[in-house]
Amino acid sequence: MAAIGTWAFSYPVVKKMKLHLLQQKPATDCVEESLAEVEDNLETGKYIVGRGGYPNRDGQVQCDAAIMEGRPGRFGAVAALSCIGTPVSVARQIMEKSNHSMLVGEGALAFAKDQGFKVEDNKRMLSSESATAYQDFMEKKKECKGHDTLGLIALDLDGNIAVGVSSSGIPFKSSGRVGDSPLPGCGLYADSRVGAAAATGDGDKIMCFCPSFHVVHLMKQGVCPADACQAVLNDIQERIGTKDMFEIGLIAMNIKGDVGAASSVEFPYAFWHNGREDVQLHTQLPI
């Protein structure tokens, strides 16, 4: 059993995942429930996740989320979804109940309504902080940057592995913009024979390189998670050059529960695996 999450704010989340796993909850439930709790909390919106996240240029909070199991064909995602407090739970219902793997915008919202999710006014999706930031943007063109996508990976007692990601996207993005988070192979990827990986950072750049798939592919060849993440970042940097390197952080876990990370910026992440009493918070230095 093991769990890992992106950024320092995932530390309490990974602690809860640890408890879920010790209670023998399936990996998918651990990931969904833990992500949904963060998404639905106005206080964590400042990390560019869910409720309380920064709106787009039209003042609308639009979220991307996805969940993927290691078993073939087990994937669900939403993109540009508004007015729902727990986008990852909608993504899971798509994986479980839809003939499709991804729904976006109004289609995703209609599906959520059909599944009984509570639809809320956009004002309830904004925190006072994100509302003020949007006002400053509109009046003063004051930018607000952030790339703190929450990515979680869990490995349960039965050897099942699942990965989930959620993001409200870059502040004041264009309406309908979709980042890397809900795209399989880009923001996340899992293979039950190998392991899983997740990405965070500048989604518009990340999606061009399919780094999560690349990491899992390297682990399939026997590379450890840390070295696989580092190799993928090295490959990207070699291709585009050091001066054009963008913000990206990668986490990975193999099917043994070994974890690793690499990043182009200082990148804290939290992790735990069976045999350790406490969740660890580690800061990965940039390449």
- Rg value: 17 Å
Tally of domains: 1
Ends distance? 29 Å
Strand content: 25-35%
CATH class (first level) name: Alpha Beta
Beta-strand segment tally = 12
* Major sheet: 8 strands, mixed
What gross morphology would you assign?
globular
Give the low-pLDDT segments. none
Give the overall pLDDT as a whole number. 96
Helix content estimate: 25-40%
Task: Enumerate the strands of the largest sheet in spatial order, edge to edge or round the barrel.
Answer: 4-3-2-6-5-1-11-12
In DSSP terms (H or I, runs of 4 or more residues), the helix count works out at: 8
Instruction: Specify the CATH homologous superfamily.
Output: (Glycosyl)asparaginase
What are the secondary-structure elements, in order, as H or E?
EHHEEHEHHEEEEHHHEEEE
Briefly note the CATH topology name.
Answer: Glutamine Phosphoribosylpyrophosphate, subunit 1, domain 1
Please state the structural category: alpha+beta
Protein name: Zgc:153169
Active site: 149
Site (Cleavage): 148-149
GO cellular component, one term: cytoplasm
Structure description:
The chain is of the alpha+beta class and 287 residues long. It has one domain: (Glycosyl)asparaginase (Glutamine Phosphoribosylpyrophosphate, subunit 1, domain 1, 4-Layer Sandwich), CATH 3.60.20.30. The chain is 31% helix and 25% strand. It has eight helices and twelve strands. The strands form two sheets. It has an eight-stranded mixed beta sheet with strand order 4-3-2-6-5-1-11-12. A hairpin with a 4-residue loop joins strand 9 and strand 10. Helix 7 packs across helix 8. The chain is globular, with a radius of gyration of 17 Å. The relative contact order is 0.18. The model has no long low-confidence stretch (mean pLDDT 96). Belongs to the Ntn-hydrolase family. This is Zgc:153169.
